[in-house]
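User: Show me sequence and structure for the first protein, then do the same for the second.

Assistant: Starting with the first protein.
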Amino acid sequence: MKSVGIKEYLSVDQDNCFIEQEIEKPKATGHDLLVRVKAVSVNPVDTKIRSPKSHVESEIKIIGWDAAGEVVAVGDECQRFKIGDKVFYAGSITRPGSNAEYQLVDERIVGKKPNLLSFEESAAMPLTTITAWESLFERMDISQVPNKKNANSSLLIIGGAGGVGSIATQIAKNIAMIGTVITTASRSESKEWCEKMGADYSIDHSKPLSPQLNKLGFENIDYILCCSYTDDYFDEMVEVIKPQGSICSIVETRNGASLPISKLQGKSVKFCWELMFTKSLYGTEDLSSQHLLLNEASQLFDEGKLSSTLTENLGVLTADNLTEAHRRIESGSMIGKLVLTGV
């Protein structure tokens, strides 16, 4: 089968950043599905894994963690899917990725592809949807069922125009019915996108947040979802979070910097991390919750309560096009998600 991978960890301006190769098609056993990949999406995690380092792989490594496709074979323990089913998923960081013609993926982290979305529109959504969903409902314990508390609550999303911020805004407004969702964006086109996703307000993350929130009438915020480097905004989050509020971050600190977490003690603030790969990485007891989550999200896409955040298709999955996708992500100016059509 055809695949695109890395041998050395190179910058996007170097030749052979990605290499095209022919490898043997894998076989499905156990809980695995063999999926014919129809479209893939590229996320910041892809660029971080590929980022320059001295290590050289003994064999070409396939990365990529967002895909949509069709099941062509099932393992002997599979119960949730059959051959011919159309699916979408983010996969596991411990296994070969989606930048290939075929991929093995555990059915317990796979969802039914939305009927009304194309493969490309669907491939843009799994990783960010899982991340946003788990951040809001599992990490910060926001009620998924709309209630009075949600209606009276405020949510600040730092980095609202990116993939996670875009779908988190939709989930917060259209599913949890959070009263006020405020996103951050520094460019006019980013602000317009955030408002299109449903944000009530958009403020500039290149300027101090507190004065901007005060100007909108908010002394503090109930929930904060940080989709940028955590240490860049930690002190500001400490300042604007409401006493007994919750903060969830999905991005590590720069260069492994430590956080002065004790600054949150006085306000009794809950601070948590979200990594959507945790369940598959550790084989947690609730692994199949991601299957259920994606199925629920699939229905919400079909009902029109959520919409795909796909903004650009860079064409067929080739080494050159994948390199360009990584270049776009690393520019830091992406709005929404970009995809590549399958090999």
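Switching to the second protein now.
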Amino acid sequence: MEASPALNDLKSTTCPNCGASLSYKPGTTNLTCEHCGSSFEIKTAGSSAEAQKENDLLAALSGNWQALQAQTQAYVVKCPACGAESSFDQNVFASACAFCGSPLSVKPDERSVAHPQAVLPFKIDRTAATNEYTKWLRKLWFAPNNLKKAASADRFNGVYLPFWTFDTDTQTDYRGERGEHYTETHTRMVNGKQEVVHETKTRWFPAGGRVQRFFNDILITASRAMPEKHLDRLEPWDLANLVSYDARYLSGFKAEVSQVNIADGYNEAKQRMERVIEQDVRRDIGGDEQRISSLNTRYDRQTYKYILLPVWLSVYRYGNKIYRFVVNARTGEVHGERPWSAWKIALAVIAALIVLGVVIYFVGQH
């Protein structure tokens, strides 16, 4: 149905035509009603510049960062199994945890939480994510025969995950040594025969200097429920398309509440930056080898953003273990975990050994 005029005052997610719930339609700026088919455009009050606004990190670190963010009322459920805290619609009192699949049967806790300044809306819908999921399942070698039943795509959940982004200018003074290889040639006697030997050695020279680098949008997950290794595989994200936070983009989806303090998030970001800075220093020293004795980094213009990014997440249990399949709901990038069939692997090894034995036999005959 063609979109109706924008309802700028539509702050709830209830259809004004029939009273049913409205849901955000991925890839659009519309809320749609599955009951009557009505569609309403989301007119976000904030500009794209506000979505990209950088906030003073030092101010946030010196006090309660949540007090610097706009507050909103949320209905939050904490999973007793994995500890994930997810926000739900007010009328949801029983569901399953999107991160581990455990049943949730407790009433949501209504509390005030700091909402993000920006959100990257869903672009890929459930059907497209399911297609990626199905293709992934078909490619699995040595998977248990009943995996497709256990990993049913109807368990897909659309979830917004919280992230920090950090920006800073860095200036690093360093001291160290540059190693340059050279070769010495000499002769020696081996079993009564003269042999020429080439030996590589290193000359070391003192080195010192300064490197500079601007770090832009160092992305750190504020989620404790999703392993970082899964989320790293989903990059890059098109952060240039962030929009100002509007709760209507979350309608029909779940959203995880931040469980990582901004100070902890920044410490992790600094560790990532330090690894890059060390590489810069080694390149600046040059030579064949480098030794670094000291690094002194100054961080200037430190800023942050608190944002939500969208994923399609499927969680299933096989045996006594939890497996996850995640789709970047903007780009379609996928990452999944899978179980292995021990007996299929054993049969493949046996078959390979038989083939190898036959080849060796015929080679030996000739």
